[in-house]
Amino acid sequence: MGYWDAVGPQTWGLPMHRNEGIEICCVLSGETSFATDNNKWTLQAGDITITRPWQRHQLGDPCIRPCKLFWMILDVEDSHERAGWQFPDWICPDQRSRRELLRIFRKNQCCHLADKDNELKKVLQQSCEKLSTGDPLVHAILANIVNTTLLTVAARLAEGVEDGQQDPQGFDQTIRQFFHGLEMSIDKSAEPWSVEKMAHACRVGKSYLTSACRRIFNATPAEQLGRIRLNHARDLLLAHLELSITDIAFTCGFNSSQYFASCFRKQFGSTPQQYRSKSSRD
């Protein structure tokens, strides 16, 4: 079982790989990509993935995007002593329940579904917070996480629901498209955006924009805008060596080269000049 909180652009991802058990992932905030041999998805907050033992799958494209993600792998593999998949005795209170859970997961071929009403996401967020406090009931909490995850996913699979309508009014999709548009245009992202202006462009209120950005990008609107501008600046540093650091800073929407350098170092681990010099040597 694991949990990560990727608060900015990452330089790593999980290539196509296989696990010995059933793997279940749940995105708590932000978004990232997920793929199997047969399909590919952009996971959003509340999305759940399920892979069978030894099924090839990938997280990242190739890098993980900013997100909070919970995952667990439960070994149910066949062995010489076991005729088929089997859950340990501490899962569910009785053998009949375990058999029904196994039947649902053995039958399942669905790799992606949406968390209805964010029920699982809420439980996982609360449980992960308790684990970080050193709660003496840690083993009971872990067992409850596994049972709740299995039961929630099994209930969704039994409904035969592959995807849910999480954004009936389309507000989140509008916000997502707005920021993806900024990713496509240096000039657009360099405009003097305030949270109020961004909310107006997305036709939502400031508070909704802020909560939606945390859910979609694991960042505030200003943080997401800053990441986009820094990514544009990084590309300019490498593609246009004739441009000075100050020129690039202003082109990408920063008010001073000093503030730009500070933000750049925080995101990429080096100053703009160091990044350009290292890349040219490589």
Topology diagram in text:
Layout: E1 2-6, E2 14-17, E3 22-36, E4 40-44, E5 47-51, E6 57-59, E7 67-74, H1 95-107, E8 112-114, H2 119-131, H3 138-159, H4 171-184, H5 186-189, H6 195-202, H7 206-217, H8 221-239, H9 245-251, H10 257-268, H11 272-281
Antiparallel strand pairs: 1-7, 2-6, 3-4, 3-5, 3-6, 3-7, 5-8
Helix pairs in contact: 2-3, 6-7, 8-10
Short description, anyone?
This protein is of the alpha+beta class.
Textual characterization of the structure:
The chain is of the alpha+beta class and 282 residues long. It contains 11 helices and 8 strands. It is elongated, with a radius of gyration of 22 Å.
> Which blocks of ≥5 consecutive residues have pLDDT under 50?
none
Number of strands: 8
Main beta sheet: strand number and arrangement?
Answer: 8 strands, antiparallel
How many H/I helices?
A: 11
Structural class of the secondary structure composition? alpha+beta
Distance between the termini: 38 Å
> Helix content range of the residues, please?
40-55%
Q: Topology as H/E string?
A: EEEEEEEHEHHHHHHHHHH
Can you tell me the overall shape? elongated
**Radius of gyration, CA atoms, in whole angstroms:** 22 Å
Strand fraction:
15-25%
Averaged pLDDT, please?
Answer: 88
